[in-house]
Amino acid sequence: MYKVIMAPTEGSDSERTAISVAVKLAQRFDADLRLVRVEAAPLVVETIPQSPLLITEQTLLDERLARLRKLEALGTECRAQGDIKVMTAYEDGPVAPRLRDYALKFNVDLIVMASHSRGGVKRITLGSVTDYLIRNTNIPVLVVRSSGSLIGATPEQTFSRIVVPLDGSALAEQILPEIAALASRLRSTVSLLQILTPLTYSQKEIMQPGLPWWDNDIAAADAYLARAASYLTEEGLTVSKDVVLSEDVAMAILDFSIRTRADLIALATSGIGGMSRFVFGTVADEITRKSPTSLLVFHPKQSAATESARGSSAAETLTGV
């Protein structure tokens, strides 16, 4: 599945977990690993009166060479960890667009990025490199939460349990092929999850008083997850399905991932203004800010609107429903 994995780097120690995960995935998928560093154009401010500009330019050159050596050293370190092909690249320019262009040029299948936030995955907001790559590519982006246990883990231990929240939309279901390929290679178990909110129940109770709306909704959600699970089980995966009632969708997903000791939460996004049906600016954003778990975020090539217009969904395509 993954033939080329890209790991952007700034040369900081906080990236070591993400780099380690990228190496393990490259080993397991027999993929090439590309370590890419992009430097934005520096703002040169001469603070010493009458100091020659040549000194400033030489300082910048020395710093650039130091960064290049550090990047090459990282590449050598990664090669020593396993029998994988590792390439390094040093680019100049605006960071996010350069990373996107590089990923597209070299047919990158997976982007592995570090989280720099201690309290959870660093907030993915408009303007960040991570968000830019999610919105402007159709490449899965794996945002790795720093953890010492991941550094020493085997590939199979890296993401042994994956939680996949689904909301009933065609968009959300398009994460399933990515999960099937990843989980089958890493021998991960998969937990499919759908959150039902009381708001839905309240509206139905008003419109249809006295009807067992809660039983009907839970049964419908369970049947929906069963159809999605059938695709994954046909791929030889161990899959569980859960329907959770909660007023807070994001916290319910986070609580479930913590309670089940998940290593990864996987979400699909429209890439247009936010995380689609998982409520732009609220649910998905809260998950990315607060999750202690790594995230796999995928922007499918076709939006949910396009899929809906064609009268199909990922589950229909995959399972014949």
What would you note in describing this structure?
The protein is an alpha/beta fold. The chain has two domains: 1-146, HUPs (Rossmann fold); 159-321, Rossmann fold, CATH 3.40.50.620. The protein contains 14 helices and ten strands. The chain has a ten-stranded mixed beta sheet, with helices on both faces. Residues 117-127, 271-281 and 303-321 have low confidence and may be disordered.
Please give the structural blueprint:
Elements: E1 4-8, H1 16-29, E2 32-39, H2 53-81, E3 86-92, H3 95-105, E4 110-114, H4 129-136, E5 141-144, H5 148-151, H6 155-158, E6 161-165, H7 170-173, H8 176-186, E7 189-196, H9 198-207, H10 213-234, E8 239-245, H11 249-259, E9 264-268, H12 283-290, E10 294-298, H13 304-309, H14 314-319
Parallel strand pairs: 1-2, 1-4, 2-3, 4-5, 6-7, 6-9, 7-8, 9-10
Antiparallel strand pairs: 5-10
Average pLDDT level: 80
Q: What does the radius of gyration come to?
A: 22 Å
Low-confidence stretches: 117-127, 271-281, 303-321
- Could you name the CATH topology of the largest domain? Rossmann fold
Helix fraction by DSSP (H/I, runs of at least 4): 40-55%
Attribute tags:
321 residues, alpha/beta, Rossmann fold, 2 domains, ten-stranded mixed β-sheet, 18% strand, disordered C terminus
Summarize the structure.
46% of the residues lie in helices and 18% in strands. It has 14 helices and ten strands.
